[in-house]
User: What shape does this take?
Amino acid sequence: MKKAVKITDGIYRLGANIENGDLFEGMWPIPDGVSLNCYIVRGEKTALIDLVEDWDSAPSDIEDQLASIPVESSDLDYLVLNHIEPDHTGWLEDFIKKAPQVQLVTNKKGAALIESFYGITENVKIIDSGDSISLGNNKELLFHNIPNVHWPETMITFEKESGILFSCDAFGSYGSINDSVFDDEISEKEHNFFDVESLRYYANIVGSFSKFVLRAIEKLGDFDIKIIAPSHGIIWRENPGKIIERYKKFASYMEGPAEPEISVIWGSMYGNTEKVLHSVIKGIRSESVPVHVHHVPDEDVSWALASAWKSRGLVFGMPTYEYKMFPPVASVLSMFNLKHIFNKKVFRFGSFGWSGGAQKDFEAATEKMNWEFIDPVEWKGKADDEIHKLAFERGSELARMIKGQ
Ligand code: FEO
Assistant: This one.
């Protein structure tokens, strides 16, 4: 049986890993899983902070860990819902049948969402920024709204005595958590893993709301935070400042400039565009600029999003397809637009058969993304030596541009 992990006196972490191969939000691959974390804060009264979805074995994992403390469902006075997205509330209807006495704590927008998702209106305590609940025994929960990190109702809960910030999606990451739940317990290799997976999580889930992330981080400066306990990912006990700084940096990439790197997204029908891709990459590497290459449709857009989010430069390699962009690359572009991959330096290349059209379609699709373009390279059929030379030059030109930013 999995046991709850004690964070400090009266405060425990309960977690479940989703590892059944499902997609997160029904669309994002999580080959290394994702954790759903909840927390118990026990004074004279007991609060559970955040819940899980009825997904994989999450409910029974949480029940086992509650029993290990031990806390019975009937012992719970409050269930604080920082965020109503179903990964944190999907089990709610069944859970409150086991704990009918529990008072749900959320803000006004959260209460409306609980009603629309679950039809629940009873036993809801509505709080607002600055409100607090004393649990007795020096345990006090203070609430603050952080709208749009990730949904409009999202809030954080801060336990005053311990300085623990229960941040829900903020400061979260993909990746399952096993026996080591704290930042000071995991190896350098695991830290590197969470560096990568927190960026992918950020770009996939939170990136569009970066202005709100920066606003929330500024506000959190008012709290004496000693530990950050998110609802996905590890707990930051030794160095909470590290994940705050990391999120600040991720958020800053939206306005740019991001890192001096280039992400290449390419697709090819019969290899004519692919052959020129190699010349473009050689051009970029001739300037010693790191390059990340993503082939679609083989690879899911989740990784290209993460890579593009942190890159100053983007390259799109795609042929014309029926007078338009090659659809797999067009689909990536559409996601980039939705997820606010803005303020980039960009180069596009690609072949066509009897007629062009991809470039015109590309320019129309990217009109509102505040991208700065260098001249594209297009050719009919097979590329000759001149095209390869031009592609190399454009690759090196883009690399020089982003180095000079
Ligand atoms: Fe982890 Fe926005 O839910």
Remarks:
- The pocket of MU-OXO-diiron is lined by residues 83, 85, 87-88, 150, 169, 231-232 (CB under 6 Å).
- Residues 5-252 form a domain with the Metallo-beta-lactamase; Chain A fold (CATH 3.60.15.10).
